[in-house]
Design a protein that fits this description.
This is EF-hand domain-containing protein. The chain has 154 residues and is mainly alpha-helical. It has 8 helices and 4 strands, in the order H-E-H-H-E-H-H-E-H-H-E-H. The protein has a two-stranded antiparallel ribbon with strand order 1-2. Helix 7 crosses helix 8.
Length: 154
């Protein structure tokens, strides 16, 4: 699986791995697998991290860089993350009037209760930064929200 990586990807993965090698022994605690993958511009869910060997407690398992490269390759290859177009199709389901708007409260509810759960305190800054103001009926245009949310996602 690591053979699927370009030389540049291997170099980037080794560099990110070295950042999480806190003791300089060529090992990384599996607790930091998700952080290391996110440092490589990937967005694995907690379920994906657990599936590839990430741990929820420190000092349960240590990985060498040769153990990490196949994990990086697998997560990099995984296409379950969704794209801007996928998210647009989902939010269109909540566009009752088919005019590109949805209820702000409904968007908030979706983000708090579906998929990987967020706390309201985690969601508030995202909505503040990415959402336009609600109109008098509580609606927001959802395309600008997604554009801002997905702007750095490749």
């Amino acid at each position: 699986m690591a053979a699927d990586l370009s030389a540049r990807d291997v170099e980037r993965a080794k560099f990110a791995f070295s950042i999480y090698d806190f003791e300089g022994k060529g090992t990384m605690d599996a607790f930091y697998v998700g952080d290391c993958l996110r440092a490589l511009n990937l967005n694995p869910t907690l379920a994906v991290i657990e599936k590839v060997g990430g741990k929820t407690k420190k000092k349960e398992k240590m990985l060498k860089v040769d153990d990490f490269l196949p994990i990086f390759a697998q997560v990099k290859k995984d296409k379950d993350a969704g794209s801007f177009e996928d998210f647009m199709e989902v939010l269109k389901l909540y566009d009752k009037t088919e005019n590109g708007t949805m209820l702000y409260a409904e968007l908030e509810h979706i983000l708090l209760s579906l998929g990987e759960r967020l706390e309201k305190s985690e969601l508030e800054p995202v909505l503040k930064d990415c959402c336009d103001e609600e109109d008098e009926d509580g609606f927001i245009p959802y395309e600008p929200f997604l554009q801002k949310l997905c702007k750095d996602v490749k």
